[in-house]
Recover the amino acids of this structure.
């Protein structure tokens, strides 16, 4: 068996692993597929005479391709929020249901936090903390020392874990309510939504949510629940996150944060919902992963 045949067989054997690396680096299944295609083209033209661990070497090839893709992202996508529904999906040719399932399996909040990291930080964290790639290999990819790569991963880890969260017991109570709200929104369960809302609940949405000339204010459990029922497509790309130390919902198609729902609870009922989509406000939020 020659080197090229062995490489092709190893690439196919490791495809699911390599796509997992690419997806966590890029946050999009379609972009992960593009990264794998580019990685194969590069790998198939490389000199393999010094390669002893094909899986490890392919992982670093995919990491380098994804790093270049992240660095080439000059601006975030600014598609209208209503474009992310069940019919149109997150992008032409994408399967929104599949993207949503994949995001849930990894953790949408994690993808959101990863998207806030610098490309080098994201690479160091993903490759080391998720796929156990040694820091000396990561440093080589980044043209840095192993210690520098270790520091990058450490900074990323702090961002992922966040800080200043509410007490654990309070977080658990809030999480149960917010998760129930998300489940009812995804399932289109109007009665369950109403049961979670205080009769006089107030929802406030900034001008970027719809958009509208002025912020939107909606009052009353039935009216707010009707609005949630109309946004079931958005709920596909929404998950639990820790936002400024409190349990919230983050909508992030393709792993890119677009909208946050903050909740005020009194006696187990939702009394206020603050919907944030303004890019400047979004950038000012501290997003972290809520530990299980």
């Amino acid at each position: 068996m020659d080197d090229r045949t062995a490489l092709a067989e190893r690439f196919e054997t490791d495809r699911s692993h390599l796509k997992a690396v690419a997806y966590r680096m890029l946050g999009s299944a379609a972009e992960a597929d593009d990264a794998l295609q580019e990685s194969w083209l590069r790998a198939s033209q490389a000199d393999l005479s010094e390669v002893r661990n094909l899986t490890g070497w392919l992982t670093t090839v995919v990491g380098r391709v994804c790093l270049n893709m992240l660095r080439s992202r000059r601006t975030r996508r600014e598609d209208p929020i209503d474009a992310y529904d069940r019919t149109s999906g997150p992008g032409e040719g994408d399967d929104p249901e599949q993207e949503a399932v994949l995001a849930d399996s990894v953790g949408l909040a994690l993808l959101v936090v990863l998207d806030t990291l610098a490309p080098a930080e994201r690479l160091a964290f993903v490759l080391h903390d998720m796929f156990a790639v040694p820091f000396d290999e990561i440093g080589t990819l980044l043209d840095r020392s192993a210690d520098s790569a270790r520091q990058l991963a450490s900074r990323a880890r702090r961002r992922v874990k966040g800080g200043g969260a509410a007490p654990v017991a309070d977080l658990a109570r809030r999480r149960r309510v917010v998760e129930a709200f998300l489940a009812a929104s995804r399932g289109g369960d109007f009665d369950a939504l109403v049961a979670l809302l205080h009769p006089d609940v107030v929802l406030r949405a900034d001008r970027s949510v719809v958009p509208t000339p002025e912020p939107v204010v909606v009052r009353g459990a039935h009216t707010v629940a009707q609005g949630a029922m109309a946004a079931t497509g958005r709920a596909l790309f929404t998950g639990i996150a820790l936002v400024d130390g409190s349990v919230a919902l983050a909508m992030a198609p393709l792993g890119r944060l677009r909208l946050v729902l903050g909740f005020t609870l009194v006696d187990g009922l939702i009394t206020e919902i603050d919907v944030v989509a303004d890019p400047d406000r979004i950038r000012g939020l501290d997003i972290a992963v809520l530990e299980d």
Summary: Strands lie at 197-205, 216-219, 238-243, 246-251, 259-266, 269-276, 287-288. The first strand starts at residue 197 and ends at 205.
